[in-house]
Amino acid sequence: MSVLVSKPTQPSEGAEARYRARMQRRKAAVDARVAAATEQRGVLLVLTGNGKGKSSSAFGMVARALGHGLRVGVVQFIKGRYATGERAFFRRFPEVSYHVMGEGFTWETQDRELDRRAAAAAWDVAVAMLRDPAYALIVLDELNIALRYRYLALPAVLEAVRARPAAQHVVITGRGAPGELIEAADTVTDMRAIKHAFDAGVRAQRGIEL
Fold it and tell me: What's the Rg (C-alpha) of the chain?
């Protein structure tokens, strides 16, 4: 049986000219925005929402920072001390100070006071980093969860973040970011869940969730 394969239609000269003109206008607009962005300072990024990818995005920035030879601090709230790929990988780098400070997810510990003490200890480590200009990037993973359950006082967190060295970048992850933190942030991304393999009965996979 023969199969007919249609050849792609070649755009006309007029269509090509319109495309080039459109791309030229777009480039001019982008170039103007780039030229207008002259401020150089540290930024606060908040990654929140119910979708997958918040911590993954944060660790992508850790890799990017390391590519530029920058020093990085990571403090993981809530998450327990089980082995993860990012922990095993980034602890190979002397430029990364990596601290796993949680006792596990709240439904695992079922102990509010234990979780509160763990969050307080993690925050002490985070505060020391936020005061140290040697850290170019700090990731406070799942801090939003600690704030949501009121293990930490939001005003104290906001004060420490605002008082950090001017060139220091901070990434805060976790569902349910409080409105005041979103307002204080420079960049906010809300991860929206559309589908997740776990909902179909697929267990967490090494290299994907672990």
Answer: 22
